[in-house]
Design goal:
- The structure is a homotetramer of 348-residue chains.
- Chain A is α/β, with parallel strands linked by helices and 348 residues long.
- Chain A is built from nine helices and 14 strands.
- Chain A folds into two domains: 155 residues, 3-Layer(aba) Sandwich (Rossmann fold), CATH 3.40.50.720; 165 residues, Dihydrodipicolinate Reductase, domain 2 (2-Layer Sandwich), CATH 3.30.360.10.
- In chain A, strands 3-2-1-4-5-7-6 form a seven-stranded parallel sheet, with helices on both faces. A seven-stranded mixed sheet of chain A has the order 9-10-8-11-14-13-12, covered by helices on one side.
- The interface between A and B is large, with 48 and 48 residues.
Chain lengths: 348, 348, 348, 348
């Protein structure tokens, strides 16, 4: 197979660094360029110290971007939506990791991102980047918009139940708990270690913008929503979503297990985690650090029709760079798990 | 005022140690005895190293217990309910910190604690130990049953709303997140540092036994419950409860504030925390370590009738020993805040 | 006793916040003013959230500073040395918490702080602020320069041995390990949570500026030094110094214990911690959080003449604000332990 | 190349789990059996949850052990030394990860391990398992004794300097700082999360048994030693050694760099880390989690002849399982880096 050339725009952030880590060990691709305006000319290992001696790549400016086969965009929200034509000229295939092309409905941008989308006509050209839901559309696609990290955790947890019409769509409550790497690599008061260490910080009790993606992918009309709150923890990587859904039919755990098995039984990166005993009987983000798995488990409340669904993933992997590489593999017709087989560590 | 003599039964655990720390600096009481079968004869500072040079007290056996004015019982669940007559002979006033006398309904014991209560006739003699709800009954009471740590966080967060009939009682969902000291001082696989560090562990998605106390204090009949899940975090002290309630009337945040002010405005240990900006604009357990505060905040979801109420406390203080000392102060007619004024640390 | 009025200049930092926390509960003083240019006009609880409901004090500008009895200066290094005359006009007694007046030798400033001292004539007017060494000079003193946090840990660990001439002064090696609050409250890449969490960072293998204080207080001439390295850990509060000294005489542990007892046996804030068993048999900073203790322990190496001395303290307490209040108490003839009796927490 | 069959004895511990994680992705070997008496018959993913869906291997009893090509022994200290004949019958090649065959001098066993070695004649048959020092002896070797984790960090840091005779052998002081996974997977009071979290615990100020390996490999006679102390931190994985050596010649940093380059310039798993700026300018264990690197850096003290050498590694990788796989690769003539290329994560 001829080697494919990929480049990364905005490669000095945490997501860019994670993409580099994965793609440097991908047997079918070669990293051609990595851009960073701030670090142009400097080795990528200056900002990604885990890549010392692994690569001698240097950052270049986005102005120097050459044509390539696949381009990953890791820019802050609100930039790619303005500069897409420039990037389209450089690559036939683009995977964008920001929120700029995740929502199909242009009306949603002013609501959730605070400004209208400058090019609503592009939104329909992007496939929403969760392979477990849009794998077919991804094959051969030119543009993929990688999903939000919290959104991925929630959508994967709930998709089979909503798709099967098993839950009361007016009652679902979700709490997502996540680590500090979600916030990117720019220091702030919120990320200052004495303040963030051991924090249990209710940073977005309502109005988290990932709700828009979740509503879109679960097929919720304006009438219903997912009642979501987000809490920041003192960990670095990892997300756990705890979703409380209320069943419309009296299903027992075995029946629920069968639903999940039907949807995810063949999925390489979803594991149904539900054991009778042990401390890892439900999904736990810490053992997923560095891996592309999304683990999903659940428990029925015997006192009501509530079902608690728990999902966990690494926000920089299945929640960002890992899922983007998975999408690239599908897009290019490569083996889907290539470069994504790291199983996670225990203990850690 | 004549000095009162207090003793602690089961003083080698974390709650017993915290009681010691508080009572050693309480100007109106003197600690007479502290029992521990395992450490009888040894200095209390052997197991509570923060008390080195602070006290020369030694543990004694419960068999050696002398009469005293107030007796704190810090035994594991299921012990005090069998041995109450023995303790009653030793002290006129008893504050029990286990779950043995928290539930008024004897039928609830087999459901939540797995065995029938051996002396259901005693249950009505204990006042449930949340001062903000039962202060009047505590004054001069002989027996107080200190509330569960998670239960305290949830009850204090929701009491005014339920009391005022402002929420749909069928829909409330609560997630409590807590630290490892909740589990006591006995090592186990679950508490082994390599496994617990940085954990986000869904340890009780349904059927947490504190639900029974919450239902009791919020006045929920068997028809309704609080849909509660509990998650264990890699912190040592601290609980945060995130409660999602659905309002029966279209109240704005100002109106909700007024409700909380009416109930808690004069409370010495409840702070309504709701600021427009900053990283501590909602309750945060880490700045409550060592303090007796329960901080409560909230946010209205503008897209629905959901109200998110957030409460935080130190599980060993307002969730256990601190609240028990507060109860003792009330019971004895002392200034309620005595020995409980430590404000918490920042940063920490 | 008439109430004394104290003010704090630079009260928005971590040291200023800790001073506030202590002085608000000090029965003999009243806090008159707290300055912060950035937060002038705002409540101190805005930046010190643990003080919510504890005080209604607001920050003012340093320009508005009124006369007071004691003034604490918590400015960044290099400021107080230029503005001392202004502060002297405001208060008869000053306690400076920066490094500006710690070194008696003016020649040391360009070496360790990078610039000459603008007023070398003031240096001799300040008492170096470790009470265990300079208590007599502190009584009635007008100016005290509070010691550095790492310096305090190292000096207290080694002072008796050096004073008694028991160690080879050419061979001492010390490693200090400390938490992130040492770096103050300004966010930076080094303090960014994803980078600092779980860090074991060799940030100053040589040339730590606290060496100058240590040499001064241990009486080391230019010929000898303490070979010190500093490592930053992922904790927030706490310092542990591990000092390796080489004995000039074959002393056993009992003899060494006697030396420490002779020097520190009556000290209210030094505990000799050396037990035969248990996990807290040596000093441990975590149980000192919020307390003013410096715990000191040691172990003789039976294979050589090495003695390992271990000391631990809370860098914001005995390493800064706590020691400053202790100094104030001595300076004013108050009971030395006033407002400093918090014993630390366990577990935490 | 024909596939080689490897088995692991004692596979339920942390080191065994790490070996499994590595060998499952090793293209030249197949894992035949993994023994655990406690978990015989159960899936390995029961105790190593990161391996869920990665393998269906089950534990068997050591009694069921079949012949294989390479046998890894991960038993507690003191067991393999008694049972070696049994294992020798099962495999031609053995890599032992305990301390049972690390010391060439039989006299050292009673001193450091408390009992005489039952088969001193076997000691000379084992190659000490640090490839950077004993690579030639490993090629084709039958028995390898994998080095201690702290010992590896210290030996790799100091070997070039000692080998070149550049340091005063009487003065070296080393402090090793390590995480909780070093202690294995058995819960204890010392590993109980409320006690271990955020700990800075001086657990072995003198007499750490890895000193014996360090003396052996650095060629120290009984006259000289390395003055080592060990401190336990609240991290899970990772070791940092800070070594203070005193130079016998006035070498500058460039000259020292050249020495390290000469010894380690071609080493695939040693990186010399010494940058002018940035927060990762010295070795940092956290970015080595899961990787097989040992990073080494240094700084000259301009005020004396001290050189501070800093090394970092993952105790379960280069300090145990990773180094054992590296040894196996050399032993079998495979590419040395096979299955060991994971570069570590950032941030983490």
């Amino acid at each position: 197979m001829p080697e494919l050339q990929v480049s990364i725009v905005g490669g000095s952030g945490y997501t860019g660094g994670e993409l580099l880590r994965l793609l440097l060990f991908h047997p079918a691709v070669r990293i051609k360029q990595v851009t960073s305006e701030r670090f142009a000319g400097k080795p990528v290992s200056r900002v990604h110290p885990n890549l010392r001696s692994v690569t001698r790549l240097k950052f270049c400016s986005v102005e120097e971007l050459d044509p390539c086969d696949v381009l990953f965009l890791c820019l802050p929200h609100g930039q790619a939506m303005h500069r897409l034509p420039y990037f389209r000229q450089r690559a036939e295939r683009i995977i964008d990791l920001s929120g700029d092309f995740r929502l199909r409905d242009p009306e949603a941008y002013p609501v959730w991102y605070g400004t209208p989308h400058p090019h609503p006509e592009w939104l329909s050209q992007f496939v929403y980047g969760i392979p477990e839901i849009h794998r077919e559309a991804m094959r051969g696609a030119r543009y993929i918009s990688s999903a939000g990290c919290n959104a991925t955790a929630v959508i994967l947890a709930l998709y089979p139940l909503y798709r099967e019409g098993l839950v009361d769509p007016s009652r679902t409550v979700v709490e997502v708990k996540g680590g500090s790497s979600e916030g990117g690599n720019t220091p702030s008061e919120a990320s200052h270690h004495p303040e963030r260490n051991d924090a249990v910080r209710s940073y977005k009790p309502t109005r988290h913008r990932h709700i828009a993606e979740i509503e879109q992918e679960l097929g919720l009309s304006g009438e219903h929503t997912v009642h979501l709150s987000a809490t920041a923890l003192g960990i670095v990587r990892g997300i756990m979503a705890t979703a409380h859904v209320f069943l419309t039919r009296p299903l027992d755990e075995k029946a629920i297990w069968q639903v999940y098995r039907r949807y995810y039984g063949q999925e390489p990166f979803i594991r149904i985690v539900k054991e009778r005993q042990g401390i890892y009987r439900f999904p736990e983000p810490k053992i997923l650090i560095g891996s592309n798995y999304c683990d999903i488990g659940f428990e029925r409340d015997p006192r009501s029709n509530r079902l608690v669904v728990i999902s966990a993933l690494d926000n920089l992997m299945k929640g960002a760079a890992g899922q983007a590489v998975q999408a690239m593999n599908i897009m290019l017709g490569l083996e889907e798990t290539t470069a994504l087989q790291f199983p996670g560590l225990h203990p850690v």
